[in-house]
Inverse folding.
């Protein structure tokens, strides 16, 4: 085994809504769409002299020699998917996250904090978006930095701390004009509200400094939970204006029980969290789930 270190831009690209695609098209047609999606992404990676490390299902991991090439490739990927024709005009969307730093290369694979950080960036990215980090932005030429807007700070791991997160404005100017007013592109407004999540002795705080968290069974998730019905990135919570929005993106739904005892079931849906209560990933309350996430919201003014 030959192991070496390299400084690279690491990029993850992932299809949005593939579970719903299987439900809509059936297994055979959905697999055909995903296979074409992965091929289209791979073609853009090759065009920009990148290297596909692996593709698993509808997710692609690749590397580029620097952040400039990675950003140009990411923009080209978004445009290629936007103009692609998939199985009777099926709409396909991609989310892309990349980071720049040192990686360990061994037998065609890569590992290390940079890979984990790139995966984390992709996990908080929405459909049609490209997001990246300050280390990647610092590696860009000045002319490209005008295409980025800082949107949040996110904590990756206790070791890595907080990262400034930037969104890449990849669309043609006429398309950007129609979208700059949407929550995903508008600069977040300051909020005094605080959401506290508690799970098995761990406490996670969502506020102005950390405006988005991921709940799921991947180890990079902010709340990591192992369970038969828990998806990789089961749900996320975002601070939007003064509201904390819980967004389900799982196979088996997300359930919320408020302090008053009301139960809400989310399946590819979202709701605003109020007051306090508990969250169950994948298991309805009628099944008496054991793994519950406690939540409570307070105002920073108090």
């Amino acid at each position: 085994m030959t192991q070496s270190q390299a400084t690279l831009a690491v990029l993850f690209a992932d299809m949005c809504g593939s579970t719903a695609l299987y439900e809509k098209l059936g297994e055979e047609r959905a697999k055909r769409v995903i296979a074409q999606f992965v091929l289209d992404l791979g073609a853009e990676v090759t065009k920009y002299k990148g290297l596909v490390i692996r593709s698993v299902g509808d997710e692609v991991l690749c590397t580029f020699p620097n952040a400039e090439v990675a950003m140009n490739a990411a923009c080209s990927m978004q445009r290629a998917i936007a103009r692609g024709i998939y199985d009777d005009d099926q709409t396909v969307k991609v989310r892309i996250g990349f980071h720049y730093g040192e990686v360990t290369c061994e037998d065609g694979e890569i590992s290390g904090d940079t890979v984990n950080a790139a995966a984390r960036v992709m996990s908080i990215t929405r459909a049609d978006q490209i997001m990246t980090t300050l280390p990647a932005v610092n590696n860009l030429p000045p002319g490209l930095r005008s295409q980025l807007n800082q949107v949040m700070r996110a904590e990756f791991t206790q070791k890595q701390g907080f990262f400034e997160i930037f969104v890449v404005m990849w669309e043609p100017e006429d398309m950007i004009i129609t979208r700059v007013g949407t929550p995903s592109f508008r600069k977040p407004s300051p909020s005094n509200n605080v959401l506290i999540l508690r799970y098995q002795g761990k406490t996670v705080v969502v506020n102005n400094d950390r405006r988005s968290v991921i709940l799921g069974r991947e180890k990079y998730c902010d709340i990591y939970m192992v369970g038969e019905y828990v998806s990789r990135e089961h749900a996320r919570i975002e601070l939007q204006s003064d509201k904390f929005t819980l967004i389900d993106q799982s196979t088996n739904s997300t359930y919320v029980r408020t302090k008053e005892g009301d139960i809400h079931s989310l399946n590819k849906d979202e709701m605003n969290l109020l007051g306090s209560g508990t969250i169950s990933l994948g298991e309805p309350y009628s099944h008496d789930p054991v793994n519950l996430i406690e939540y409570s919201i307070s105002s920073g003014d108090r």
